[in-house]
Model the fold of this input.
Amino acid sequence: MRVFVEATIDFSDEEIDFLASGEVKQKIEKIEKDIQAILAAAQQGVILREGLNIAIAGKPNAGKSSLLNALTQESSAIVTDIAGTTRDVLKETIHINGMPLNIIDTAGLRTSEDKVEQEGIKRAHGEIERADVVLLVFDAQDEAPDLSILPSGIEGKPILLIKNKVDLTNDVVGVEHLEHQIQLSICAKHSKGVDLLKQRLSEIAGLSDTGEGVLLARKRHIIALEAALVSVQAALIQLDNNASELLAQDLYHAAQDLGSITGEFSSDDLLGEIFSSFCIGK
Done:
């Protein structure tokens, strides 16, 4: 695509103008769709390779550690009735249908004067911000979950509300679809409703049962593909505005980002393609 655009700019006196037709736009739109499809497959591949990062968050004594133990089916975390027992990050990996899930138990979120607990809460915020999914655990005896305890900057991140300790309120174990979130009522201590949670996490990961079409990519590939997609979408805008030089620049950036995955395509390569494809100067 860059060959056509660069030829139009550099050899305008040769009556070469591929931008006048709709063919260039169609080709760029196809590139956009191809990158989106590859990106979706690559994102699933990263999950398969590195796992889905799931942070368990909530106030002290909400049952976060009990949930970690229920998910891992091991006594990975210390569980007591004393609030603030968990002061550091605890990570365990489980597998659902071959998909790794990195479960991260974090310190209870509250205001504290204790220096050690403050450091634990700071680390908890970092893990929540980096997580792919957040499980906000709250006590069923509370009226509603307190979303304000979560750190800022997690907009758009999937947040599952986990209403725990339903054995104390006689609430029914199950899934409730609220206006903006999904709430699961469970009893982590007795592992009731945990299977429903695992099923929901599998759905969020968006992996097919067969894994067909999944690319085992790395996170750097995702970053490069996302950057390339932004440049291609910007190129479409420049094309509509007849800004050929800005169009060429956006396509160059897209090629650079894709080149970080597939290998470099130099300026000499581009010129070679131009002169071999068109009868310029003849």
Residues 208-212, 277-282 have pLDDT under 50 and may be disordered. Helices lie at 2-10, 23-50, 64-72, 115-130, 194-205, 219-240, 244-262, 267-277. The first strand starts at residue 52 and ends at 58.
